[in-house]
Design goal:
Elements: H1 2-21, E1 25-30, H2 49-61, E2 67-72, E3 75-78, E4 83-85, E5 97-101, E6 107-110, E7 112-114, E8 119-120, E9 137-140, E10 153-154, E11 157-158, E12 160-161, E13 187-189, E14 205-208, E15 217-225, E16 230-233, E17 253-256, E18 267-271, E19 276-279, E20 290-293, E21 299-302, E22 315-316, E23 318-321, E24 324-326, E25 352-360, E26 363-365, E27 368-372, E28 375-384, E29 387-389, E30 392-396, E31 401-404, E32 414-415, E33 418-420, E34 423-425, E35 437-440, E36 446-448, E37 451-453, E38 460-463, H3 496-499, H4 505-509, E39 518-520, E40 523-525, E41 537-540, E42 547-549, E43 552-554, E44 561-565, E45 573-575, E46 578-580, E47 583-586, E48 591-593, E49 596-598, E50 602-604, E51 613-615, E52 618-620, H5 634-644, E53 650-652, H6 656-668, E54 676-677, E55 682-684, E56 689-692, H7 697-700, H8 718-724
Parallel strand pairs: 1-2, 2-5, 3-6, 4-21, 5-23, 6-24, 12-18, 21-25, 22-25, 23-26, 24-27, 25-28, 26-29, 27-30, 28-31, 28-32, 29-33, 30-34, 31-35, 33-36, 34-37, 35-38, 36-39, 37-40, 38-41, 39-42, 40-43, 41-44, 42-45, 43-46, 44-47, 45-48, 46-49, 47-50, 48-51, 49-52, 52-53, 53-54
Antiparallel strand pairs: 7-20, 8-9, 9-19, 10-11, 10-20, 13-16, 14-15, 14-17, 15-16, 18-19, 55-56
């Protein structure tokens, strides 16, 4: 009897302990047909997310210590201003505040405002093209001076702003181009008739690729001298506003948002001076779903950010789960902006749908971020352990995901983020240079199992600020290339009081904080669709310890090298990647190990590759031209290999006679003593299965067979999808 009583007491004690360990969760509900005077239950939901947030604030301030869930019912939630979550919204310690979709419903957060009162234009302005007359509708926009939106939507479809025919600037960039990059950055020479001194000049923008292939600018016009063919922009371009070098583009630039360019269905023009919005609908009439965005940034999670090295206080534990974010405006550069590398994005800028700025242990998961003029997700300044997982990010004007720390200095507080299992595509639709994932001065991040495709420029960028921006440069190579401190790109973000006066590249690289990142198991294809001089994965001055591992890259349009080490990138690894069509470019002391390259080759910058390792790679050449190492002459090949000293690599071409001859040239330089020319015996090259069959000579050389089953999205890895669908890898 006593034993039975003891057992009952033990069972009761265990149950009480189990109950005490269970985490309490409070749930509130929001619905578009609710009321903020309701109690927030499933039967009496709130109407706005703002009110739900404020209710949660009060509960946390009252001492609540559990989890909180805010379930949003399906429907469109229109935000009139950015929804801000501050320190008072932090989850109780060790818990979360989760804003989630209710069951399988779709709550849509947007900043767009519907435009009504459309009337068909019957009296035609003289500048309206004849082809558009009778097809254009007009709506009055109140307060247009303060609402100069740059994007317009039909439903969620982003409409095209009217643009003129393309033209080439009349001012050439003198040679050498680098020495003149920082000149005439506000001055554009144009052919007769390309620009006019419009009455509403403040509405007009020049879209231009300034001097180089790798970026675009939208620049507002300050004045136009029609007689002399000279326009002045109110903010400088990234570089000199001259013809693009090394690229034969007929349409280097054009003008946007002028009525005479409204010559195709789907285009629109806003005149803020008259308050008129002109639109040529594709369907014949505007319908009821034309809308314009009110803000660029829909949601901001912001803690206490200070400029000092210490003192930041992050918002914690806020999670967005299953929501849709859409309908933000395009970024507009100002004289106060500070650019990061090549102005591919702006430092600490409110240009993304969701932004963390001073946050920790937060997440965006299972969300759609789509159809917006700006970027998807930004993680700025102090930020640690932010998870961006299982999202679809697409049809954006800017960057997909940006992890952006502080500029070079002693403040290294942006790190430890996870970007996994996201599909990112058709981003950079307005700012063409925008990468899918951009890591700048942010370290120890994991970029895993993402599916990135159909983008105009690079897929993944890891970078920082190069030593020459500190004034450290080779006087021969960079003669005449002194960078003025007034330049927007990089110069404005260096923490000059902290970096001191570095005299060598090594001293400057101490402040390169994009270290120890892992980019692994991602599938990348159809990148570099528009711009030039780019790559699928690009590293420049990020810091040591970065690992680019087991990524599948194929069908890039303009990329000669799919993975590229560029200036001042040191001590990082490219290993077990699978590349179809392009190659890998080595610069500086980095390591290229156990990759498979089909159709491309290896490229080495001999003057910088001291101490590098290029080993256990398979280079399988296809087509008529066999180039295992990308070089033009045998003397250059020897010089190229002398510093990197590659060995234990396997080379092959189905044209075995030419292939053996090419391999003999390599061995004649005294390198690849242990290398071989041999068929690697892939399992099924046509289907992309580059695993090595038993008996492969590569295995005998110590080359590992790459595990292709882990590449791509977690729910359907790449090669599993290839079995279900027909995929062309070339």
């Amino acid at each position: 009897m006593m034993m039975k009583m003891k057992n009952n007491i033990l069972i009761l004690t265990s149950l009480l302990l189990l109950m005490s360990c269970q985490v309490e969760t409070v749930e509130f509900y929001v619905a578009t047909d609710g009321s903020d005077s309701n109690t927030g239950t499933i039967d009496a939901p709130f109407a706005t997310i703002n009110h739900a947030r404020n209710t949660v604030r009060k509960k946390i301030a009252g001492g609540y210590k559990g989890n909180i869930t805010i379930s949003l019912r399906g429907g469109v939630y229109r935000l009139e201003e950015t929804l801000v979550f501050g320190l008072e919204d932090s989850a109780p310690e060790g818990h979360t505040v989760r804003y989630k979709a209710y069951q399988d419903e779709e709550p849509v957060l947007t900043s767009t405002e519907l435009i009504s009162g459309w009337k068909k234009l019957t009296s035609f302005p003289s500048e309206l093209p004849i082809i558009a007359q009778g097809n254009v509708w007009v709506a009055n926009i109140e307060n247009a001076k303060n609402w100069q939106f740059r994007t317009l939507f039909d439903g969620e479809k982003m409409l095209s702003r009217a643009r003129s025919a393309g033209f080439v600037p009349t001012m050439e960039c003198p040679k050498p181009s680098l020495a003149h990059r920082w000149e005439e950055m506000n001055t554009l020479g144009f052919p007769e008739g390309a620009l006019r001194n419009w009455d509403n000049l403040e509405d007009v923008e020049i879209f231009i690729r300034p001097t180089h292939q790798w970026l675009v600018n939208y620049l507002p016009i300050e004045k136009v001298d029609e007689q002399n063919g000279i326009a002045t922009t109110s903010i400088p371009g990234t570089y000199r506003l001259s013809k693009v070098v090394n690229k034969d583009w007929d349409e280097t630039c054009w003008v946007e948002n002028v009525l005479e360019a409204l010559d195709e269905p789907g285009e629109w023009v806003l005149n803020s001076k008259t308050g008129k919005l002109y639109y040529w609908p594709e369907s014949g009439n505007p319908g009821d779903n034309i809308s314009a965005p009110v803000v660029r940034e829909l949601v901001l999670v912001e803690g206490r950010n200070v400029d000092a090295v210490e003192g930041d206080i992050p918002v914690r534990g806020i999670i967005f789960d299953g929501l849709t974010f859409t309908g933000g405006d395009r970024d507009v550069w100002t004289v106060k902006d500070r650019g990061i590398q090549h102005d591919w994005d702006m430092f600490d800028k409110d240009n993304a749908l969701v932004r963390f700025r001073g946050a920790m242990d937060c997440a965006v998961t299972n969300c759609d971020l789509r159809n917006s003029g700006g970027s998807g997700i930004r993680v700025d300044l102090y930020a640690k352990d932010i998870e961006i997982t299982n999202n679809k990010i697409f049809n954006l004007g800017g960057t997909g995901v940006l992890l952006c720390g502080y500029g070079p200095g002693n403040k290294d507080v942006n790190k430890g983020h996870l970007v996994q299992n996201n599909e990112i595509h058709h981003i950079g639709q307005l700012f063409w240079h925008s990468p899918a994932v951009f890591i700048w001065q942010s370290g120890e991040n994991h970029i895993l199992n993402n599916y990135i495709h159909d983008i105009p420029y690079d897929a993944v960028i890891l970078s920082g600020v190069r030593p020459r921006y500190f004034g450290i440069m080779d006087p021969v190579k960079w003669k005449g290339y002194a960078i003025p401190r007034s330049i927007r790109e990089n110069m404005q973000v260096i923490r000059w009081d902290e970096v001191g006066d570095p005299q060598t590249a090594a001293e400057a690289l101490v402040f390169a904080h994009a270290r120890n990142n892992v980019v692994q198991d991602n599938e990348l294809h159809n990148v570099m669709e528009i711009l030039g001089d780019g790559n699928a994965i690009y590293l420049s001055c990020g810091g040591a310890g970065n690992v680019i591992r087991r990524n599948l890259i194929y069908k890039s349009t303009n990329a000669a090298n799919e993975i590229r080490f560029d200036d001042d990138q040191e001590e990082s690894f490219v290993e077990e990647n699978i590349i179809f069509g392009g190659g890998i470019k080595l610069k500086h002391t980095n390591y290229i190990l156990n990759n498979v390259i089909v159709g491309g080759g290896l490229s080495i910058r001999p003057e910088t590759a001291v101490g590098a390792r290029v080993e256990h790679n398979i280079v399988y050449s296809t087509g008529n031209k066999i180039a295992f190492y990308n070089t033009n002459t045998e003397s250059k090949l020897a010089r190229l290999l002398d510093l990197a000293r590659p060995d234990y690599n396997l080379f092959y071409s189905p044209d075995e006679t030419s292939g053996r001859d090419e391999f003999a040239k390599i061995q004649a330089t005294g390198h690849e003593e242990h290398g071989q020319f041999a068929n690697p015996l892939f399992v099924d090259l046509e289907k992309g299965d580059i695993r090595l069959r038993s008996g492969s000579p590569a295995l005998k050389m110590g080359i590992k067979s790459i595990d292709i089953e882990k590449i791509g999205l977690l729910d359907e890895p790449s090669f599993k999808r290839f079995k279900r669908t027909k995929v062309s890898l070339y």
